[in-house]
């Protein structure tokens, strides 16, 4: 049986800040159904829910070299839904509130990368493939090459690095090269880890991993272009033969409107009348004007401009003037929070601003809103639009990355499609597309067809996990 170890900084249900956590929580489950022994290794943060922390059993205590220091590392283990998770513990690095964004993140994740490699012989799991995700795990392939290849236990271990977002690169002052990684200056060049005079975790991963993947085919193409490549496009072009896009899926057993206990009324594509009850209840609970006829626009996102809030803020009033309602869920930049709070104060029965995180409300929005607005400026894959479609909430997106790949534009002639797509990143275009969507919304028959097509499209992990499996197979037999 193939053995694969995922390394990542977050995973559902333990802890998550974004889509990365969802993927690490769901893809391994699906892969293990396909006869792969997949396990996951991640940091043991203080903020992991106590119900899981309490169940973790420390199995080993080891010493991990970080530069000239020796750090204590404990390894604990927990099985969840058939997948084994290992947790890397260290008081200084991870026993604090929060996940990332600290001034010493370079040290924390340098420790993590090193600890993963040191842990392998102890946990008695020698993976054929180390499948590393995002910059936090980026230095693993570099360290493997530099410090472990001579050791027979490690020889032959292959590496894959998955880019979930090329914009987060983990770039730090060059001194960390020796201080945190025990690497010499021979690594400080563009073929190594040097990036604009700094040490870049991402760059190291892109240079040293056997294969690079990213989370949609379209994003894999986009990042080869200078305007989308975050200054890594040249390197990515040179590695083009070893770069592939595999679209993310979502956990279909977790996100299922026919079984979801967090929504008001369960439904499927054949019982859309019941979907409407979710809409009315959503309006009622949030204090909005209760009406079937008014299209409800849902927004579930981090409130940052790359998620399209720069466009939305320019035309918010005009969108409301189209006789719509807006339900927002998310936190982020203060300016955007205030924008929605002010709008909610001004139009209490038309706008609901929920400046928070809530899995429950997110599901209720997917199940009850009519249009799901997600005009991200760039989006490697995007998962919320997939959740929305699964619950019959029609996505309205900008034609970029995974959004372009997963939402099929509504065809006014044939009535086919699964959503609305605009292709110039401009507020006017966004507004125009919302207007078109609200017009289609008035045609109940056309809209119901749209809902059914969206609900029927398959964004489970089934197909994508086969692609990963094929890639693993190819790499192992190389
Ligand atoms: C990041 C990307 C998002 C992707 C997710 C999981 O959050 O921004 O597009 O879906 O990672 O891969």
Summarize the topology.
Elements: E1 2-7, H1 19-33, E2 36-43, H2 50-53, E3 57-66, E4 69-80, E5 83-89, H3 91-94, H4 105-123, E6 129-133, H5 140-148, E7 158-163, E8 171-172, H6 176-181, E9 194-195, E10 198-200, H7 201-208, E11 211-214, H8 217-222, H9 233-238, E12 243-245, H10 272-285, E13 296-300, H11 309-321, E14 325-329, H12 334-346, E15 351-354, H13 359-368, E16 371-374, H14 384-390, E17 394-398, H15 401-406, E18 420-422, H16 427-442, H17 444-456, H18 462-476
Parallel strand pairs: 1-2, 1-6, 2-5, 6-7, 7-11, 11-12, 13-14, 13-16, 14-15, 16-17, 17-18
Antiparallel strand pairs: 3-4, 4-5, 8-10, 9-10
Helix pairs in contact: 4-5, 5-7, 10-13, 11-16, 13-14
The structure holds alpha-D-glucopyranose (GLC).
Residues 18-20, 23, 164-165, 215, 248, 379-383, 402 line the site of alpha-D-glucopyranose.
CATH-derived topology of the largest domain:
Rossmann fold
Number of domains: 2
Largest sheet, strands/sense/barrel? 9 strands, mixed
Strand order of the largest sheet: 3-4-5-2-1-6-7-11-12
Small-molecule components bound? alpha-D-glucopyranose
Instruction: Based on the coordinates given, report the CATH architecture of the largest domain.
Output: 3-Layer(aba) Sandwich
Secondary-structure-derived class: alpha/beta
The helical percent reads 25-40%
CATH class of the largest domain reads Alpha Beta
Superfamily (CATH H level) name of the largest domain = Glycogen Phosphorylase B
Oligomeric status of the shown chains?
single chain
Our count of helices gives: 18
Quick one: overall form? globular
Strand content: 15-25%
Q: State mean pLDDT (0 to 100 scale).
A: 97
Q: State the distance separating the first and last CA atoms.
A: 16 Å
**Global Rg:** 23 Å
């Amino acid at each position: 049986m193939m053995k694969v170890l995922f390394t990542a900084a977050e995973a559902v249900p333990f802890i998550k800040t974004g889509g990365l956590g969802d993927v690490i929580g769901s893809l391994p489950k699906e892969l293990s159904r396909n006869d792969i022994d997949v396990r996951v290794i991640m940091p043991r943060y203080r903020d992991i829910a106590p119900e899981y922390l309490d169940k973790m059993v420390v199995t080993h205590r080891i010493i991990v070299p970080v530069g000239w220091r020796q750090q204590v590392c404990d390894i604990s283990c927990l099985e969840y839904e058939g997948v084994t998770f290992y947790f890397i513990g260290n008081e200084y690095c991870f026993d604090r509130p929060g996940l990332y964004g600290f001034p010493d993140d370079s040290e924390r994740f340098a420790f993590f990368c090193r600890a993963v490699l040191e842990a392998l012989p102890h946990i008695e799991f020698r993976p054929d493939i180390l499948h590393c995700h995002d910059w936090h795990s980026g230095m693993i392939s570099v360290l493997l090459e530099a410090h472990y290849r001579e050791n027979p236990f490690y020889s032959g271990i292959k590496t894959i690095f998955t880019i979930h977002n090329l914009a987060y690169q983990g770039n730090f002052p060059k001194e960390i090269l020796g201080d945190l990684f025990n690497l010499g200056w021979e690594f400080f060049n563009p073929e190594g880890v040097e990036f604009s005079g700094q040490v870049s975790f991402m760059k190291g991963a892109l240079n040293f991993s056997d294969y690079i993947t990213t989370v949609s085919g379209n994003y894999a193409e986009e990042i080869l272009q200078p305007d989308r490549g975050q200054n890594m496009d040249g390197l990515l072009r040179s590695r083009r033969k070893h770069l592939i896009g595999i679209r993310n899926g979502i956990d279909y057993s977790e996100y299922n409107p026919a079984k979801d206990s967090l929504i008001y009324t369960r439904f499927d594509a054949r019982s859309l009348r019941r979907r409407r009850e979710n809409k009315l209840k959503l309006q009622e609970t949030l204090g909005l004007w209760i009406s079937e006829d008014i299209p409800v626009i849902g927004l579930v996102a981090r409130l940052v401009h790359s998620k399209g809030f720069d466009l939305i803020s320019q035309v918010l009033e005009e969108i409301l003037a189209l006789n719509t309602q807006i339900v927002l869920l998310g936190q982020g930049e203060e300016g955007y929070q205030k924008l929605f709070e002010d709008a909610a104060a001004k139009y209490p029965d038309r706008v609901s601003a929920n400046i928070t995180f809530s899995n429950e409300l997110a599901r209720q929005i997917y199940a009850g809103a009519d249009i799901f607005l997600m005009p991200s400026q760039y989006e490697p894959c995007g998962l919320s639009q997939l959740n929305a479609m699964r619950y019959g909430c029609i996505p309205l997106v900008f034609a970029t990355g995974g959004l372009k790949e997963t939402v099929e534009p509504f065809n006014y002639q044939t009535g086919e499609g699964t959503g609305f797509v605009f292709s110039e990143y401009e507020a006017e275009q966004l507004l125009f597309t919302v207007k078109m969507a609200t017009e289609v919304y008035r045609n109940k028959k056309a809209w119901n067809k749209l809902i059914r097509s969206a609900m029927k499209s398959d964004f489970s992990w089934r197909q994508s996990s086969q692609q990963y499996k094929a890639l693993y197979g190819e790499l192992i037999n190389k």
